[in-house]
Design goal:
With 730 residues, the chain is α+β, with helices and mostly antiparallel strands. It folds into four domains: 258 residues, no CATH class; 92 residues, no CATH class; 124 residues, Immunoglobulin-like (Sandwich), CATH 2.60.40; 82 residues, no CATH class. It has 23 helices and 25 strands. The longest helix is centred in the N-terminal third of the chain and has 29 residues.
């Protein structure tokens, strides 16, 4: 079972909708600006019916109400939606039969039932299926009303128009088309009667729309002004002005707005060749004036609504190929009319026996099935084969917009050992999460938490639309994918191993140097005298050859106990000098054997290589920068690399082996670090206090320090026999 974008958004919205009604909190029935009210009612009523009758398990009913995003709940919600949409398609076929003819109804109904693009939206929990079928029904009711304009029919027209608007605001085109239909319906009446009829039916129609909206949508009744404001913000800010931030792909390149030719190209690629044959025949019959009055109304009103609808969705910066779906049923009905008229013309022109009509119809419908069924279950992979199918479509249109095939990726990940412990990073993490046993992380271009993932999943729709930084893709492609998703001969997705970092780096950016994403530690508890390996994952923001990227272990007073320089790992030498490249580097920190046991702080940053002047330091997240140092298993006979310079022994317990200064020249306001190197000759019983003096050339005291070793943090009576202790003073 697969998922598509926004499904759980609407499942959760329906659960909230039901709870708001049960609590009489009508304002809370507002969920989105689409507004998707009919979809939420269908899910709510279907939920109540199926839970009461026991079709759904009690666990699924509880999970739905609690907003849990489980595949079991989604499966049941889809069953409700697909049943409703199937009934609506059947109703549309019945209405076409009543308005036009049985052959047109039969052919259009079958073509709709096996339209690949419509099939996907009719069986998923999104608003497109509902607005498509209810909007089509509204146009057909309008045609039925024009044939015999009665008050009952115009009221029914208003109800369907209101329901369509509640399904999705993009069906606003029904308003001018409906008003035009009312004007056309009364053309045969005398002038005085015509005016009165127009006013009466316009009032009934508009009143039915308003009453339907208020009765069906409690939020509109409880807070009409607030709902109107939210709808305005959604329609004119998010959609028209592009506030949603979505990017698309058109004609070979990513774009924020594909422009006016996007939907015509979508129509060409997303529809069946049979549709275009039927439309061509319909146009030919129109030019030959071979239509009856009913057929002219059907084609004219349908074409007008399609034209207005295309104008509405084209005006929006937010463009998805699925937004074209509400135009497909009416196009299919026009095409079916053309096919039937074309057959009648062939019968009259060439003397074909009318009895062959059933055979021709079955052949036609068999071809439609043959075009559609091979794409099961991912009908979104269908593109017009006469235009080259998906292999050509990927060069012009965004593919993978239905997130098709992600279930196969989840199946691969679930097959891995200990899948429950695996973390996967992906820009489609929300779509992958319900299908995957393990954990998911959202993948972004600016944040580095996804570097902690064990695997990374890249999907074609993100690549097409430029959602991923090319440097990140280049970084991942250093190694071949461990799994490739291929649908209809086109690569749709790639799973890469890693990065698998241990710790998030906090995403701190040092301008002109680097952004630290993550890092690994060879150990978080380590013995003194052993090296600590640190691997860093960062973005090169323009670091200079004169810079030094350091890693340090310091104490709370800032004393540097261990330090290493980050160098590029093998394979990252070029990235080290390439701006915006993702780099892996490594530093070795030799821990001195004299480090007292305790907690130390990890630091990373930049300084000038020649002068050691600081440039900046990364801010590491709390609780991830602590390193615990323990005593070594054995102690060396003397501090490594230090020649005896003092050789002072105290009571056969302690030996001051030597010292180091971090500088030998300083001004009066400067500070320096004096490091003493002690060795316990045996287990020390006394708690010694150390006195340190700074004398000038006249042996006059200039500074004086008094305290226990390691700034009173490590008393001598805690030292073990033969232990070496490094004792810093400032």
């Amino acid at each position: 079972m697969f998922t598509v974008p926004d499904e759980f958004y609407w499942v959760t919205g329906s659960a909230n909708f039901l709870q708001a009604i049960q609590k009489n909190d009508w304002e809370a029935t507002y969920h989105a600006g689409q507004p998707g009210v009919t979809l939420m009612w269908v899910e709510t009523l279907g939920f109540l019916a199926t839970c009461k009758t026991g079709i759904f398990s009690s666990l699924d009913c509880k999970a739905f109400l609690e907003g849990e995003k489980t595949m079991s709940v989604l499966r049941h919600m889809r069953l409700i939606v697909v049943t409703t949409n199937a009934l609506l398609v059947a109703g549309i076929a019945v209405m076409v039969r009543r308005i036009v003819s049985y052959p047109v109804a039969w052919i259009s109904g079958f073509l709709l039932a096996f339209d690949a693009f419509l099939l996907t939206e009719s069986r998923v929990v999104r608003t497109e299926g509902m607005v498509t079928h209810i909007g089509t029904a509204a146009v057909l009711v309008l045609l039925w009303y024009i044939q015999r304009p009665t008050s009952r029919r115009v009221l029914l027209l208003g109800i369907f128009t209101g329901l369509s608007l509640l399904s999705k605001i993009s069906s606003l085109g029904l308003l001018p088309v409906g008003l035009l239909g009312i004007l056309l319906a009364v053309q045969h009446l005398p002038p005085n009667t015509k005016t009165r009829q127009i006013l009466l039916h316009t009032g009934l129609w508009s009143g039915a729309i308003i009453v339907t909206i208020f009765l069906v949508w409690p939020a509109a009744l409880a807070a009409p002004l607030d709902v109107a404001r939210k709808m305005y913000e959604f329609t004119f800010i998010r959609a028209v002005e592009g506030g949603g931030g979505a990017r698309s792909f058109f004609w070979g390149k990513p774009t924020d707005d594909p422009g006016p030719f996007f939907y015509p190209v979508v129509l060409l690629f997303r529809t069946s060749p049979l549709l275009w044959v039927g439309l061509a025949l319909a146009v030919a019959d129109w030019l030959r004036k071979n239509y009856s009055g009913r057929e002219k109304l059907l084609v004219g009103i349908s074409a007008l609504y399609i034209f207005i609808y295309l104008g509405i969705i084209t005006a929006s910066h937010l463009k998805f190929d699925r937004y074209i779906i509400p135009a497909l049923p009416l196009l299919t009905i026009i095409a079916a009319t053309g096919l039937v008229k074309g057959w009648h013309w062939a019968v009259g022109r060439w003397g074909v026996s009318p009895g062959w009509g059933a055979v021709a119809s079955m052949a036609l419908l068999g071809l439609q099935v043959a075009l559609t069924v091979p794409h099961h279950p991912y009908y979104y992979t269908y593109y017009n084969p006469l235009l080259g199918g998906i292999r050509q479509a990927r060069n012009f249109l965004p593919i993978g917009t239905g997130i098709e095939g992600v279930d196969q990726v989840a199946a691969y990940l679930n097959s891995l050992p200990a899948a429950e412990t695996i973390t996967v990073a992906s820009a489609n993490s929300q779509k992958l999460r319900p299908l995957f046993k393990g954990n998911t992380l959202p993948m972004t271009n600016t944040g580095g938490e996804w570097f902690l993932a064990d695997y990374t999943f890249i999907y074609i729709s993100q690549l097409q639309r430029g959602k991923h930084d090319p440097n990140i893709i280049q970084y991942l492609r250093r190694h071949p994918a461990v799994f490739e998703l291929s649908l209809k001969g086109v690569e749709y997705g790639w799973v890469y191993k890693g990065p698998g970092a241990q710790f998030w780096g906090g995403d701190t950016t040092l301008e002109g140097r680097g952004t630290l994403y993550a890092y690994d530690l060879s150990a978080t508890t380590i013995q003194a005298g052993t090296p600590l390996s640190v691997t860093v994952y960062f973005r090169n923001e323009g670091q200079h050859p004169t810079d030094r990227f350091y890693v340090r272990l310091v104490d709370t007073d800032g004393y540097i106990w261990a330090e290493g320089t980050v160098m590029p790992r093998s394979g990252f030498e070029d990235a080290w000098t390439q701006r915006e490249a993702i780099v892996e580097g490594k530093a070795e920190l030799p821990l001195p054997v004299g480090m007292p046991p305790g907690l130390y702080i990890l630091k990373m940053g930049y300084e000038y290589r020649d002068t050691s002047k600081p440039i900046g330091e990364f801010i590491l997240p709390d609780n991830s920068d602590d390193i615990r140092v323990t005593l070594p298993a054995t102690f060396p006979p003397a501090p490594p690399g230090l020649s005896p310079s003092v050789n002072l022994t105290l009571d056969d317990e302690l030996k001051l082996y030597g010292y180091r200064l971090d500088k030998t020249t300083l001004s009066a306001s400067d500070s320096l670090w004096l490091t003493l190197y002690w060795q316990a000759l045996k287990s020390v019983r006394r708690d010694y206090v150390i006195a340190v003096q700074l004398l000038d050339e006249n042996e006059t005291e200039r500074a004086y320090w008094l305290g226990r070793p390691v700034r009173s943090g490590y008393p001598t009576n805690q030292w073990q026999a033969k232990q070496i202790v490094q004792d810093p003073w400032r």
